Amino acid sequence: MTESVNRHHDGRAERWRAHRLARRAEFVDAAFRAFDRLGPGAGMADIAREAGVAKPRLYRHFADRAALVAAVSERLSALVWEHLGPALREPAPMRVRVRESLRAYFAVVDEHPNVVRLVCRARSTDVVAGDRGAAAGAIASMFGEYLKVFGVTSAGTEPWAHGVVGAVEAASDWWLEHPAMTRDEIVDYLTTLVGGAIEAALRSEGVDLDPDEPLDLTGKERHGNRS
Predict the structure, then answer these.
(1) What burial letters (b/e) apply to 141-152, b meaning 16+ CB within 10 Å?
(2) Domain HTH tetR-type: where (predicted)?
(3) Which domain holds residue 52?
């Protein structure tokens, strides 16, 4: 009897938890839409109206506006990685991987400029710092793949990758305030910048890489293009 009651209680608790998580996700969606439409200055009252609830209802799920902004940052990060991940993993020449990655990132920036502005203002938060670290890690991994092909290892991949991420973030901030430049133009400029940085970093390790040459990244080492 006791075991049956406990199972019933656990089931109710799990359903209530699932309901709260679903409700929280709805509020994050509403906040994303509100910031997207009204800009980074949207307040809790604006978000509550977007969600169709009274403002106190939001505070049952988020301690304050900062907590809600952090959740929106996580949502934006997921959206960016949804676009960026396939491009970073694409088995293509280096220049193509760089261009497609930048194109994917700027597609999100272009579609949700106000949310990106909001997140840029919150760059000191742990969530945003973690996202930046994840992006740098992915780029460092891509760089490491090229080194591995030529039998080279380097401890400099992490700081180099963080520098690239910082440069792209700064460029996207600038572009949001200078919309006269088209998305394709900013992607082309940054492809040259980031691609050139990759080539220079590889050369510093004795690797001469043709940015338009497809490479076998399955782990088989090459030694023909070592400087």
Answers:
(1) ebbbbbbebbeb
(2) 21-80
(3) 10-62
Query: Which residue pairs from 153-159 have beta carbons closer than 8 angstroms and sit at least 24 positions apart in sequence?
Result: 154/205, 156/201
Three-state DSSP state, 118: helix
- 181 in a domain, yes or no? yes
Mapped onto helix, strand or coil, the DSSP state of residue 207 is strand
| 169 plus 188 within the same structural domain | yes
Per-residue pLDDT of the chain (227 residues; tens, 9 = 90+): 555 555 555 677 787 688 788 999 999 999 999 999 999 999 999 999 999 999 999 999 999 999 999 999 889 988 888 888 887 777 788 889 889 989 999 999 999 999 999 988 776 555 555 555 566 666 667 666 766 666 666 667 777 777 888 888 888 889 998 888 899 999 999 999 988 888 887 788 777 778 887 765 554 444 445 44
Taking a C-beta distance cutoff of 8 angstroms, is the pair 139, 161 a contact?
A: yes
